[in-house]
């Protein structure tokens, strides 16, 4: 049986001076540092046998995919299934104003953290991303494929692949900016998962998706 690898690449740092939870809101682009992160990930994957590059429709993901595709002379195709997760609080700053957990009007959105009740269910994210992964694996069979997407869909898909509960502590996600989570398949079967952070040297002072600074 052939060996195929599907790399799940998280986008780089976003220009987000208001530090909003931007979610699926349009127009959020990479910052200058995010562009440098994307280039480092493109360089990291330059010698890989990549024959397919697909991206979330979000601008930040498309921009992150660009140097990866360019290194292999490939066009970027868009896959709606790997878009950002839905979130009730997008467009707001978490912990501030109408997004505060201490506001009783928001308590209904925090009733079930296992689902989670404030956004797209984890299982739905896993289902759509896993379908996109297997489609990419079939198209790139015997080679490597790249899907550029977002932190939470990557993380819950990895936890599902490793047989772990989908509920987790967001502070402990191993999915840094422009990181590469690689799923290696033998035939249609997942053989192992590996992880790399090509842009780690640029993390100091970077801002993550919720507006908080990375350590």
UniProtKB/TrEMBL annotation:
<dbReference type="InterPro" id="IPR029033">
    <property type="entry name" value="His_PPase_superfam"/>
</dbReference>
<dbReference type="InterPro" id="IPR013078">
    <property type="entry name" value="His_Pase_superF_clade-1"/>
</dbReference>
<protein>
    <submittedName>
        <fullName>Broad specificity phosphatase PhoE</fullName>
    </submittedName>
</protein>
<dbReference type="Pfam" id="PF00300">
    <property type="entry name" value="His_Phos_1"/>
</dbReference>
<dbReference type="InterPro" id="IPR050275">
    <property type="entry name" value="PGM_Phosphatase"/>
</dbReference>
């Amino acid at each position: 049986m052939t060996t195929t690898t599907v790399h799940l690449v998280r986008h780089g740092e976003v220009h987000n001076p208001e530090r909003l939870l931007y979610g699926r809101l349009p127009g959020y682009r990479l910052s200058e540092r995010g562009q440098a992160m994307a280039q480092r990930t493109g360089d990291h994957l330059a010698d890989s046998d990549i024959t397919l590059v697909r991206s979330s429709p979000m601008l930040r993901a498309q921009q992150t995919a660009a140097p990866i595709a360019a290194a292999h002379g490939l066009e970027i195709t868009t896959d709606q299934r790997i878009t950002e997760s839905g979130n009730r609080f997008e467009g707001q700053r978490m912990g501030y104003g109408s997004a505060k957990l201490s506001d009783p009007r928001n308590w209904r959105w925090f009733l079930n953290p296992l689902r989670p009740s404030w956004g797209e269910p984890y299982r739905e994210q896993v289902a759509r991303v896993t379908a996109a992964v297997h489609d990419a694996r079939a198209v790139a069979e015997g080679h490597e494929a790249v899907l550029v997407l977002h932190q939470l869909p990557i993380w819950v898909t990895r936890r599902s692949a490793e047989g772990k509960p989908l509920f987790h502590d967001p502070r402990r996600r191993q999915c840094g900016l422009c990181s590469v989570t690689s799923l290696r398949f033998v035939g249609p079967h997942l053989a192992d998962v590996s992880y790399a952070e090509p842009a780690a040297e640029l993390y100091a002072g970077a801002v993550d998706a919720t507006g908080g600074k990375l350590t």
